[in-house]
Amino acid sequence: MSLTLEQLEDAYAKLATGQHVVNFRSPNGKSVTYSQGDMPTLLGMINRMKRKQGQTLTRTRRVITSKGL
Predict the structure, then answer these.
(1) Terminal-to-terminal C-alpha distance of the chain
(2) pTM
(3) C-alpha 18, offset from chain centre
(4) Which of 18, 19, 22, 45 is the most exposed place for a label (fewest CB within 10 A)?
(5) CB of 49 within 8 A of CB of 12?
(6) 1-69, what's its fold?
(7) DSSP string covering the chain, please?
(8) What are the pLDDT digits (tens) for 12-63?
């Protein structure tokens, strides 16, 4: 069963906000279930799919110094 990027991101967001299990069912009757323990796997799948689509992955880093700059 192949999920879209939107479905993977939706599943990750639901798990990150406290939902314990996310289920998807394909038109042919197959289903896949993700739980909070699958979040690293989902994130890896999302990142791979974005790379395939040519989307860049960005990271943000916040640095605070002793002077607050």
Answers:
(1) 48
(2) 0.70
(3) 14
(4) 18
(5) no
(6) Head-to-tail joining protein W, gpW (3.30.1580)
(7) ----HHHHHHHHHHHHTT-SEEEEE-TTS-EEEEEGGGHHHHHHHHHHHHHHTTPPP--------TT--
(8) 999 999 999 999 887 788 899 999 999 999 999 999 988 888 876 666 677 6
Sequence letter at residue 35: S
Length of the chain: 69
Q: What long-range pairs does 49-52 form, CB within 8 A, spacing at least 24? A: 49/5, 49/8, 50/5
How many other CB atoms are found less than 10 A from the CB of residue 15?
Answer: 19
Tokens representing 11? 């599943």
Please give the Cα distance from 1 to 67 (Å, whole number): 52
Domain ranges (residues) in the chain:
1-69
